[in-house]
Specification:
Length: 174
């Protein structure tokens, strides 16, 4: 395939690769099998770069995967698609933004999401109000019961777009 005919990485694929890269950088639930599956999806979409194809050809069985080899190939895949490996702070914000999206979409329990954000606080470079308020909401949730707890969960969901907006700014260099 010539470079003119080569498919362009879509926004959803790019975002998924950035999230997988953030997990690799932070060693946060990085699953080699997920990276192999994503590479296979990219090959099915017509991407045929050497690292993409080689990564997609790795064993499907997670037990048979060589994590070191998968990480090397994944870094090469990222380079093929011109995706920069983020530093830890930026990677933390990528995961914080993803967590906020999951809270907003209702795919993650608000209290669990707030707790996950608390775990990223230091990784994100000890941010200001963006994550601090979410941490305070989680503390309030932990000490609440009944209707108060439900109200705090709603506050967490209502505040999640603020975290997402901060993450979109802070997960990019410059």
């Amino acid at each position: 395939m010539t470079s003119v005919d080569a498919p362009q990485l879509g926004d959803d694929d790019r975002l998924e690769l950035e999230r997988l890269a953030a997990r690799l950088v932070l060693d946060e639930d990085f699953l080699p099998a997920s990276v192999v599956a994503k590479a296979a999806d990219l090959v099915a979409e017509g991407f045929d770069g050497p690292a993409t194809v080689e990564l997609a050809a790795q064993p499907v069985d997670p037990v048979k995967l060589d994590r070191i080899e998968v990480e090397r190939l994944f870094r090469d895949l990222l380079a093929e698609h011109r995706i920069r490996i983020l530093g830890p702070g930026e990677a933390g914000w990528v995961l914080a933004g993803w967590t906020a999206e999951l809270i907003i979409d209702g795919a993650l329990n608000p209290a669990d999401g707030a707790l996950r954000l608390w775990g990223l606080w230091r990784t994100c470079g000890e941010p200001g109000d963006e994550l601090t308020w979410m941490l305070q909401l989680h503390d309030a949730w932990e000490s609440s019961v009944g209707a108060d707890r439900i109200a705090i969960e709603r506050e967490i969901v209502a505040y999640a777009p603020e975290v997402l907006a901060a993450a979109q700014l802070k997960s990019r260099p410059g």
